TrEMBL record:
InterPro entries, alphabetized: MnmC-like_methylTransf, SAM-dependent_MTases_sf, tRNA_MNMC2
Keywords, alphabetical: Methyltransferase, Transferase
Species of provenance: Pedobacter hiemivivus
GO biological process, one term: methylation
Methyltransferase keyword on record: yes
UniProt GO molecular function: oxidoreductase activity, acting on the CH-NH group of donors; tRNA (5-methylaminomethyl-2-thiouridylate)(34)-methyltransferase activity
Protein name: tRNA (5-methylaminomethyl-2-thiouridylate)-methyltransferase
Pfam family, any one: Methyltransf_30
Keyword Acyltransferase: no
Domain MnmC-like methyltransferase as annotated: residue spans: 140-221
């Protein structure tokens, strides 16, 4: 069961009662997504991989906010977006619609997601020209692909509530899908996570966190 919750910046999130955690920061869902995944992740990756196309792997589609903001940024900057998201427990379409995130992106992007959500859970779909979305309904440890991505958004629930998503083995598993010099970005930062990434050849950056969190992590594959 998920309950709609207002966060401090005026945007909504959902509270997952079975996990015991919100999908986004209670200090601000919109500003957290922008700060961690767009500003520290997407913009940095586009600078690192200059061109007209970006390939993103997301762990945890959730409410779809990270995709909506990514699609908006890429459309405005004429960048082709290929976005694959892993989600073990997809929300119902009514739950996505309840978030009010249509207020933060152009209507065409919102309509593209809402109208194609069910189809995207089955195959890659174009929500707009050059904006492709695929939601893989699976657990992370079962996911396999030959594709190599430029950027990983790691947006699983916290280690306190979902420790199995933060083991050394699962971090190594997902990072194999990054191309050389690929970027891993997440809202979390712990000594254990830093050691896990360093052990598989990543360089680590500690960045200022979104409101309510002192630091966040960005890592680059050797």
């Amino acid at each position: 069961m998920n309950k709609i919750t207002l966060t401090a910046d005026g945007s909504n999130t959902l509270y997952n009662e079975s996990i015991g955690e919100h999908y986004h920061s209670k200090h601000g869902a919109l500003q957290e997504s922008k700060h961690v995944f767009i500003d520290a992740g997407l913009k940095h990756a586009i600078t690192s991989f200059p061109g007209q196309e970006i390939n993103i792997l997301e762990v945890g589609f959730g409410t779809g906010l990270n995709f909506l903001l990514s699609a908006d940024y890429c459309q405005k900057n004429q960048i082709k977006l290929n976005y694959t998201s892993l989600e073990a427990f997809p929300l119902q379409i009514e739950e996505l619609e309840s978030t009010g995130y249509n207020n933060y992106v152009p209507q065409a992007i919102w309509d593209g997601v809402i109208n194609n959500y069910g189809k995207a859970l089955q195959q890659a779909v174009s929500i707009l020209p050059d904006q492709q979305l695929k939601i893989v309904h699976t657990y992370l440890h079962r996911y396999e692909t030959a594709q190599q991505f430029d950027l990983i958004y790691y947006d699983a629930f916290s280690v306190q509530h979902q420790p199995e998503m933060w083991t050394d083995e699962i971090i190594a598993h997902v990072c194999q899908f990054l191309k050389p010099s690929g970027i891993f970005v997440t809202y979390a930062i712990t000594g254990k996570l830093k050691r896990a990434l360093k052990s598989i050849g990543f360089s680590i950056e500690k960045l200022p966190g979104a409101p309510g969190k002192r630091e966040m992590l960005r890592a680059t594959k050797a």
